């Protein structure tokens, strides 16, 4: 599970705080949980994420993000590779506006997010969960 480091007006990134809380709570004993704080740096992400996949061969990866516009917990159906125009923490932005050169335009989750949303909503928690196909960039 990855949370992200500080960026912009987020001196402390709530996504990383949430991931740390998950680590404290833990998961079932048969789940090998690894948590990471991912720097908000295009070039670091391009090296770090593939290295983590190689090291752990995960069955599931969850990237937890933060949004100043979100009013609910938002489950993303896909992640985009194009349209990145903002500078990262190193004041860098890829000229191609792509996270991964030559990568697919969008990576769709194989998880049925609609079902996940319905199941979480049915639990009666004091949390609103919605679905999105427009992950932040």
TrEMBL record:
The active site is at 76. SUPFAM superfamilies: Pyrrolidone carboxyl peptidase (pyroglutamate aminopeptidase) (SSF53182). Its EC number is 3.4.19.3. InterPro entries: Peptidase_C15, Peptidase_C15-like, Peptidase_C15-like_sf, PGPEP1_Glu_AS. Its main location: cytoplasm. It is an enzyme of class 3 (hydrolase). GO terms for cellular component: cytosol. GO terms for biological process: proteolysis. GO terms for molecular function: pyroglutamyl-peptidase activity. Keywords: Cytoplasm, Hydrolase, Protease, Thiol protease. It catalyses: Release of an N-terminal pyroglutamyl group from a polypeptide, the second amino acid generally not being Pro. Removes 5-oxoproline from various penultimate amino acid residues except L-proline. Belongs to the peptidase C15 family. This is Pyroglutamyl-peptidase I.
């Amino acid at each position: 599970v990855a949370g992200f480091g500080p960026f912009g007006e987020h001196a402390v990134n709530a996504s990383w705080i949430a991931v740390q809380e998950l680590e404290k709570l833990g998961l079932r004993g048969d789940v090998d949980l690894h948590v990471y704080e991912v720097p908000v740096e295009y070039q670091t992400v391009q090296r770090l994420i593939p290295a983590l996949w190689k090291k752990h061969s995960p069955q599931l990866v969850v990237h937890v993000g933060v949004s100043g516009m979100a009013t609910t917990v938002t489950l993303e159906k896909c992640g985009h590779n194009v349209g990145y125009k903002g500078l990262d923490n190193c004041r860098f932005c890829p000229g191609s506006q792509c996270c991964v050169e030559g990568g697919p335009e969008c990576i769709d989750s194989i998880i049925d997010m609609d079902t996940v949303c319905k199941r979480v909503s049915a639990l009666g928690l004091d949390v609103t969960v919605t679905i999105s196909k427009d992950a932040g960039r």
